[in-house]
Amino acid sequence: MKQSDCTYSSLPNDVALKIASSLEVPDLSSLGCCSLVWRDLCGSDCLWKSLVRERWPLLNEAALQDPNFKGWRGFYKKQHKEVAGRAASVVKFVEQCSLSESLDVSNYLKAIECLRSMQFGFKDVQMVLFKPKLNVLLNLVGLHYCLNCLQVPASHVTEALQSSKISDRQVCVKWWKLGRWFYGFRMRDESHSRCISLQDLATAKEEEVLGVLERGAIHEVLQVQISVAESTSNLWSNQSPQ
Fold it and tell me: Where is the F-box domain (predicted)?
């Protein structure tokens, strides 16, 4: 222990903090076990406040008005434990709304808004929603949330999809647009559909699909339906907007 303390004392405090700030949470916790000096430094509020802000960028100040607030490290641990419980409600909601492996865009956007209200971060989405065992519609909700709400760079999202082995999973989006007027007559409603992988959506190869998902059923778009790719032929074989 004395040797570890001596090693630390040979480093300027700002250099030691710089080293600690470059570590992920598990490594930071391990470093804090090396000695009493490193434990104090790795428990510094300045480090854990930065980690909280990085993981939960949508966190508002109201969330910090907790009478039991005992520092940023404790707050990080508390938030981390609550993630699973909060995510379970979103997973249950989407699964209930997509029993036929198809999800209406209104419920899809509602699920994304739930993540926003829970102040989910990018790591939370990776841990909870970027799982191959989940319905691909849940993967899509997480993908959309990261791109549009958290503004995570597409390259980071693509890397996360690939590491989770879900980048090639596909969804199909179908939407019906109000028929155009032509010389006083309204033409038949137009039907559009696209089958696309999560990776292609992340890299904006189908900007029209992303736009439809973001806007939902408004203005000229009458209905938007999102489906698991494998079940599309069964779900949409004779389907028309209600």
Answer: 5-51
